[in-house]
Write a structure and sequence with these properties.
heterodimer; A: alpha+beta; Aldehyde Oxidoreductase, domain 4; Aldehyde Oxidoreductase, domain 3; 3 domains; 7-stranded mixed β-sheet; 6-stranded mixed β-sheet; B: Uridine Diphospho-n-acetylenolpyruvylglucosamine Reductase, domain 2; Uridine Diphospho-n-acetylenolpyruvylglucosamine Reductase, domain 3; Enolase-like, domain 1; 5-stranded antiparallel β-sheet; 11 helices; 35% helix; globular; binds flavin-adenine dinucleotide
Chain lengths: 791, 290
């Protein structure tokens, strides 16, 4: 079931071949070209003065000492930007964010001023020399307190704003759900906090902005996952100062990890652009690691109160979530416009509920803005964590094995396409198949026996399951847009006379391997060897318009565009082949790489011969050349899924949790490159382990960040990660041209609840119902002590 | 994370280095492995005007037994300690310690001498050297002097080294027969400083402790020598009740503060748990069972 035989030969390297990643040749040799590798003659350097306070009035900015340092050319302040009306900018969620403050700062680490200098070192000296006087204001850190009446109103810039409430959003059937809860035999309720985290990509954010005063063209090399959208945003926001869209070129070169953190527009980019426009010189701004952790957009920070209702026999009937979303001082998430809480309403997960309702209220606090989707499709991680925790709690309360409970309530294979209570139409799935395989791989029944024996001896061992459903590939234009731009994506495919090709896409790889997988999709469709298909992305002057890479949308959307463009090329090639073979088009059959006359396979024309003819001997009346463009508007989202099982052992002396085993069974539909899929799963699992056991960004009562450097922001290394055991099932997407679903984020989404469930499973008999992630040793130890079992 | 500007010199001899230190006084900093100094400079928490790089001085990198001591030179890296068969065979406490300092990249550069001279209570070697009863050699304008490690640390980041002295050698007494040691550390992830760590070095004779050294890492403003716990061992049989009692006392001697690595209670409890576990491991090693 898992591996179907590829249709193309290894030489062609179409779908299903584990060909080596084309991009690795340069990455492994240190020859990648990242933003910080861009060096232009006369380039200036920007460094940013940041606020030590979480909420304070700025009474004075004295730049004289900084300006006295040889090599410091300017100090950009909010007052300067205000002259051009550039001190505020819109966020992707149509909120507003300061580029540089004029009145007050709203979070620690916020940009206060920027120093422009002839070297990076002098710029840093300049930052140290800028003197800012602050008048501290009351700090609001807790979103619940932020929403209480009488709380200090933070957004005093918004006329008439009398509270810290941003928006209310709800979905589902409130009355039906209430009734179901009122009548239910069993209800369970749990507060679940999904902490604030940072993507901590290896490459931080930055740009080189170059405004050429002669021709008025602005070129920005930028760490962005969505270069085209950024160009349009720049044109819309800075049109009044003369930036028009054809004169803006955004280049997203090699990107060292994005994970959602490189979707937003950060103040640093805008300041660098402004500084270049003012000086006419190229300006480089590169965030350092601490700035990145402290001020780039955060992810998660959802306070969920979840409730589940069902019968004693294990039938789950209704689900209800009430959530407070902490957005920091502005809503700088990057969700589709219609969905301020993203796709959080995928929350019914893999289960067939009769009723569901959720509501989310967003709050302003004195923290950095964001709410981005860290390696997840718009809040799916939050939803999956909550539902998978609730399923476990429900199972334990009614005394049923959590695997049995899941199987009883799964949406069954014959129910697809399945319409969820929140209105999504799941395309395909075989949830029982994935869970059965995971249980077999890990030896579930034996583990339960071992656990019972260990428990009798007082040892703590736990087994946790997560059977997640993802929702990716945003999305159909009817529902999905960002700032009004529909979430299609695109491919422009050109076949050269010798039968080689170049394909350009509207997405942007940040490590996913698009240069390889996109080439494989086209190789599959045309039979041109993948090694002869060059793939380009990220330059808005050359690539077709697309919404970029995040939310696992590249394969579902741009990958589909690639397949469709290739099919258009093939249709034209068929006409050429018919002309060359002097037969009717209907008399031709296709196998990857060539057309042949039905019944006489020796009479054939290869795709390369057709390509050559397109430039040398095209049929009369036909346009020469062989190329095609496709803008793909997906008919639906895709729904990858999987079942993960984790085994943990707990040290009763130290509270340390050791992940002994972790089996991950994934189903992402048809697979383009199995090796790349494995790589995505391995990396994703490590990034799922991270928030489960290690990573968190916290603030003290004064809004001081805790864990704002890699010393305390605990990104796990290979030493912390267990040896992942992966497997797969394959349930193709029925609506996607190549049956693929997207896999970049499944593991990040699915892993945390498996780990959390395992830890709680180890401690449930002591009376522990839930532990918020990250499950750190001090937290576990405190519980062990409370329950009287600590060593 | 850009340091302030500084002058740099790379002397070729010890005396040249010492005269540079004399010349620049408090404005100078010695650079050995750079794994503590450079991060501090990049964060601008340290801004020495003059950096004296001692890496160009020959003859300062060695690990050998001589004159009743294991001697470790100023430029011996953690990785060298970790790779030394002699250390693994005879000084397991030292091998354990070198193996949990930072990560391999850090260990390739970081020196044991720098680890002590930096006098960070979070560093691992201070506790180890306290448990081992080591001493250090300080070389200055007036020649060399020996300082017992228990007299070396005076506070957070401060020692009895004069500004013009270089720590040139570490001396660890050669173990008597029946000795064993162990270092156990709880860290949040690899490369982290300890939430708490415990170094023990013991000698057994006829089933009883004849000597015991216990050092505690990162549970006080200075590295702690748990002298009361040590006393609770010496002369007593190496049995579980002795271990448990010494571990209890070691936890009392700890003086931790709450931070992101845990609460006071948690850290104190870690000291107790780790002391007991380290003692058990040291005993099996002393008996040649491990
Ligand atoms: C990522 C990371 C993780 C780390 N983790 C740990 C850990 O887990 N445990 C741990 O113990 N340490 C850890 N360290 C610190 C590391 O071990 C340091 O290298 C060590 O503390 C200092 O040794 P050094 O040779 O690098 O000294 P340097 O950084 O060169 O110097 C440190 C200080 O000591 C002075 N100094 C250095 N050598 C001498 C000398 N011979 N005589 C007099 N003064 C001298 C310097 O002037 C400076 O003030 C870590 C460091 C990093 C970067």
């Amino acid at each position: 079931m898992s591996s179907t035989t590829p249709r193309t030969s290894p030489e062609v390297g179409g779908m299903g071949h584990s060909i080596k990643r084309k991009e690795d040749a340069r990455f492994l040799r240190g020859q990648g070209k990242f933003v910080d590798d861009v060096k232009l003659p006369g380039m200036l350097y920007l460094d940013i003065v940041r606020s030590p306070y979480a909420h304070a009035k700025i009474t004075k900015i004295d730049t004289s000492k900084a300006m006295a340092i040889p090599g410091v050319l300017a100090v950009v302040t909010g007052e300067l930007l205000k002259q051009y009306n550039l001190h505020w900018m819109p966020t992707l969620m149509s909120d507003t964010q300061m580029v540089l403050p004029v009145e007050k700062v709203m979070h620690q680490g916020q940009e206060v001023a920027a120093v422009l200098a002839t070297s990076r070192y002098i710029a840093a000296d300049g930052v140290q020399a800028v003197e800012v006087d602050y008048e501290p204001l009351p700090v609001v850190v807790d979103p619940f307190k932020a929403l209480e009446p009488g709380a200090t109103v933070l957004r005093t810039d918004k006329e008439g704003k009398t509270d810290n409430h941003i928006w209310h959003w709800e979905a589902g059937d409130k009355a039906g759900t209430e009734q179901a809860f009122a009548q239910a035999e069993v209800t369970v309720k749990q507060d679940i906090y999904i902490p604030r985290i940072n993507v901590a990509s290896i490459e931080t954010c930055g740009c080189v902005a170059h405004f050429n005063k002669t021709d008025g063209k602005l070129t920005v090399w930028m760490t962005t996952q969505a270069p085209h959208a950024i160009r349009t945003v720049f044109a819309l926001v800075a049109g009044h100062v003369g930036l028009s869209e054809e004169k803006i070129r955004i280049i997203s070169p090699d990107i060292g990890g994005g994970f959602g953190g490189k979707v937003p527009v950060y103040p640093g980019y805008v300041i660098a652009v402004a500084a270049s426009v003012l000086t006419g010189a190229p300006v480089k701004w590169i965030e350092d690691r601490i700035e990145n952790l402290q001020a780039s957009s955060f992810a998660r920070d959802y306070h969920i109160t979840a409730e589940l209702a069902g019968k004693k026999d294990g039938t789950m009937q209704a689900l209800r979530f009430k959530t407070i979303a902490d957005h920091g001082y502005t809503d700088a998430a990057a969700n589709p416009s219609k969905f301020p809480a993203g796709l959080f309403h995928i929350a019914t997960g893999s289960y067939d509920f009769q009723h569901a309702f959720m509501e989310v209220d967003a709050a302003y606090t004195n923290k950095p803005p964001g709410g981005i989707a860290y390696r997840c499709s718009f809040r799916v991680t939050e939803a999956v964590h909550a539902i998978e925790r609730m399923v476990d709690i429900f199972a334990k309360d009614i005394g049923m094995d959590p695997a049995d409970l899941r199987k009883k309530n799964f949406i069954k294979p014959d129910q697809f396409p399945y319409k969820s209570q929140f209105g999504f139409e799941y395309d395909s799935g075989n949830y029982i198949g994935a869970l059965d395989l995971a249980m077999k791989r890990i030896g579930y029944d034996d583990l339960r026996k071992e656990q019972a024996e260990k428990r009798a001896k007082g040892e703590l061992m736990g087994i946790g399951i997560s059977s997640f459903t993802e929702i990716v590939g945003a999305g159909p234009s009817k529902h999905y847009d960002i700032l009004g731009i529909k979430m299609f994506d695109s491919c422009e495919l050109r076949i050269h006379p010798t039968g080689k090709a170049i394909a350009r896409f509207g997405t942007k790889s940040q490590g996913q391997g698009h240069e390889t997988t996109y080439a494989q999709i086209i190789a599959e469709e045309l039979g041109i060897p993948a090694e002869h298909i060059a793939v380009e992305e990220g330059d808005t002057d050359t690539a077709p318009y697309g919404l970029g890479t995040y939310a696992s949308r590249s394969t579902p959307v741009a990958g589909a565009a690639g397949a469709m463009a290739a099919r258009k090329v093939r249709d034209k090639a068929r006409k050429i082949a018919a002309y060359l073979l002097e037969v009717a088009e209907e008399d031709l059959d296709w196998e990857p790489g060539k057309f042949f006359v039905k019944g006489s396979p020796s009479k054939s024309k290869t795709i390369q011969e057709c390509a050559f003819a397109a430039y040398t001997n095209n049929p009369p009346g036909m346009e020469p050349g062989l190329e095609a463009v496709n803008y793909y508007d997906p008919p639906n989202l895709t729904y990858p899924f999987g079942s993960y099982i984790c085994v943990v052992d707990i040290d009763k002396g130290t509270g340390q949790v050791k992940v002994r085993r972790f089996v991950a069974v994934d189903d992402c539909g048809n697979i383009i490159n199995p090796m790349i899929v494995d790589g995505q799963i391995h990396g994703g699992l490590a990034m799922g382990l991270a928030p489960a056991l290690y990573e968190e960004i916290n603030y003290d009562a004064d809004g001081n960040i805790q864990g704002g450097s890699l010393m305390d922001y605990l990104v796990p290394t290979s030493m912390e990660t267990p040896s992942w055991e992966t497997d797969k099932t394959c349930t193709p997407s029925p609506h996607h041209p190549i049956g693929a679903k997207g896999v970049g984020e499944s593991a990040t989404v699915g892993a945390p609840p498996a780990i959390a469930n395992a830890v709680v499973d180890a401690l449930w008999h002591l009376g522990v119902r839930h532990i918020d992630i990250p499950i750190t040793p001090p937290k576990v130890w405190a519980l062990l002590k409370e329950k009287g079992v600590a060593e | 994370m850009i340091p302030a500007s500084f002058d740099y010199s790379s002397p070729k001899t010890l005396s040249e280095a010492i005269s540079l230190l004399q010349q620049h006084g408090a404005d100078a900093k010695i650079l050995s492995g750079g794994q503590s100094l450079i991060p501090l400079m990049k964060l601008r928490m340290a801004a020495p005007k003059h950096v004296v790089d001692i890496n160009g001085i020959d003859g300062l990198a060695y690990i050998k037994e001589s004159g009743g001591f294991l001697t470790i030179g100023a430029l011996t890296r953690e990785a060298d300690v970790d790779a030394s068969q002699l250390v693994h065979d005879r000084y397991p406490l030292l091998a354990d310690t070198a193996g949990v300092i930072g990560d391999p990249l850090v260990r390739n550069l970081a020196t044991v001498a720098g680890n002590l001279a930096h006098a960070d209570p979070a560093n691992d070697h201070p506790a180890t050297m306290l448990a081992l009863g080591a001493s250090v050699v300080a070389t200055g304008p007036k020649g060399a002097r020996t300082i017992a490690i228990s007299d070396f640390f005076t506070g957070i980041f401060t020692t009895t080294l004069a500004p013009d002295e270089i720590l040139t050698e570490i001396r660890v007494p050669m173990p008597q027969a029946g000795s064993g040691g162990a270092y156990l550390k709880v860290e949040r992830k690899v490369g982290d400083f300890a939430a708490a760590a415990v170094a023990v070095q013991i000698t057994l004779d006829g089933g009883s402790f004849t000597s015991a050294g216990i050092g505690l890492t990162n549970v006080g403003p200075m590295p702690i020598k748990a002298t009361r716990a040590e006393k609770a061992l010496v002369g007593k049989p190496a049995v579980e009740s002795t271990i448990v009692e010494a571990a209890r006392i070691a936890a009392e001697e700890a003086d931790p503060a709450e931070d992101l690595r845990g609460s006071v209670d948690y850290k104190r409890s870690l000291v107790r748990v780790l002391t007991a576990r380290a003692l058990r491991l040291a005993i099996t090693r002393a008996k040649g069972e491990h």
